[in-house]
Amino acid sequence: MSINNDELKKCEDKLSFVVGKDSKGNIVRASFLELPHLLIAGATGTGKSPFVLTLLENLLKKNTKDELKVYIINPHEIEFKDYINCPQVAQNKVFSKPDEVIEVLETLCVEMKKRYELFANKDVSNYDEYNKKAKKKLAKIIVLIHEYNDYVLSDCKNKFFEYLLKLVMLSRAAGIHIVLATQRIYEQTITREILMQFPTKIAFAMRKEESKLILGNDDAEYLVCGRELIFKNDFNNDFYQRLESFFDFKEYNDSNSRYLFSREEVID
């Protein structure tokens, strides 16, 4: 399955993204207008990374640099090389080294605090209310942390956890959302604290014990590798659905990336 540009344009919600297709052929979407944060998990080769790239492209196609800022955190810069020149991408780079990742998270905590001070001055309590009153609107911020475990297991893990937990607990009302993606699923790193702050989860194929940690059951063990996912959204009336995922992704990426970078009016 691939998602074409006409399908992307049908949804007016600029912070929506396509999750997959249900058994009746209906496209299922989610949106950061509603979701606080998002956890994406799956074993190597199951479709997790293509999904992350698709999500990113969904958002970049529909938002200008004044509407959206994306921080990309990933130990392997090459995966996102086609996107770093987009004006919405912070500093036009992928933050990969642990020390610069800590600096980014600390900067985001400071930005969150500044936003709450702005809200107080306008006598509002959140991002949406502020943007309705303010002449200069604030951009939504998406923090995409890919291969999360590489940082949790690094020498900077304590600082990483400290700033990450502060953000996931307090940042949603400030218009800052975290997307956490991982292929290695351990209780020591996907802690109860993390799971509580990520009520929305997308699971690709994984081992039984990993599925039980992420979903609370072993359903992800039986997914067709590379073709299916489970969308679990406890933030929205315990929504739970098995969906068809994006394939052939190479075909999708080859055709749609050219569209993205040729449409300056969309990404400027």
Describe the structure.
By secondary structure, the protein is α/β, with parallel strands linked by helices. The protein is 38% helix and 22% strand. The chain is built from ten helices and ten strands. It has helices at residues 5-10, 48-62, 98-121, 127-133, 149-152, 157-170, 192-197, 208-215, 249-262, 264-267, and strands spanning 16-21, 27-31, 38-41, 68-73, 89-95, 140-146, 176-182, 200-203, 228-233, 239-244. The strands form two sheets. It has an eight-stranded mixed β-sheet, with helices on both faces. A two-stranded antiparallel ribbon has the order 1-2. A hairpin with a 5-residue loop joins strand 9 (228-233) and strand 10 (239-244). Helix 2 packs parallel to helix 9 (249-262) and helix 3 runs parallel beside helix 6. The longest helix has 24 residues, at 98-121. The protein is globular. The two termini are 29 Å apart. Residues 1-9 and 248-268 have low confidence and may be disordered.
How would you sum up this structure in a few lines?
It contains 10 helices and 10 strands. It is an alpha/beta fold.
